[in-house]
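SEQUENCE AND FOLD
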Amino acid sequence: MVTLKAVATLVLAGLCQTALGSVCATDDRDRQVCLEQSAQRIAALSPGATELVYASGAGDKVVAVVAYSDYPPAAKKVASVGSHTRLDLERLVALQPDLVIGWVTGNPQAQLAALDELGIPIFYIEPRSFDGVSSTIERLATLAGTEDEGFAEARRFREGIDELVARYRDADPVPVFYQVWDEPLMTVNNQHLIGKVISLCGGTNVFGDLERLVPRISDEAVLAADPEAILAGGMGEENRQWLDRWAAFPQLAATQQDNLYFVPPSLIQRPTPRLLQGSRLFCEKLDEARAHRTSSADAEPGQP
């Protein structure tokens, strides 16, 4: 059986992570990562990282991905090296990557430390803002030598977000609960990127002030907050089952006003350019909630 150390020995000659390299970028751990030349064999260790590398124009340089790296479709044909929480290191190293794109809080730190000890350059990412998404695309494009395509995509994303900011700057606020997971029940606070989408669209996150980025909550907490709109992803891109939970509570304002909305999770829960599409959809749902206010008022002109 070929050992990790033996495979690494074959790879080390082609790897470099030194400040003397000619291609450099600063990652989301504030580390300067430098390569002697543009990356040619890239391993992306989360589905979001995979999307971002393709968005940067370097999709044809991706030699390894992890489970659920399903976008763009071409990514499905790339060799998988486990999941983002458990990597097959021997398989990964055997693919001879000259750049690994790691997830700051999502990948196993001990395994990434092992890659680092082997001299394989690791560029850590974790965009937590709209500008962070576009900046990540630009930095990846810099490392891959695909600046023309990557910087154009980053500009398209920035301009799209700016258009939404201008459109919804003065929108009537809508109290919103976003469900990010089912069991245990979880949401996001205002510091989370999804929390920023809520704010962008003129929503008010009813759990925005909670301390944890992705806090656990209870059904009782949602009932007490009584959001005007509830949005959720689900187990799959077309599974609205999570919303059935809230349809069972007719006392909720969101249920009464028919403001239970599904948003495909990959459009809103991955910090990639598709977040622009997800944000537009999110904003449209809150526009529907606002329209339901008008419909209700028209139906009951004598009510306060």
Notes: The CA atoms of residues 68 and 243 lie 23 Å apart. The first strand starts at residue 23 and ends at 26. Residues 171-298 form a domain with the Rossmann fold fold (CATH 3.40.50.1980). The mean pLDDT is 91.
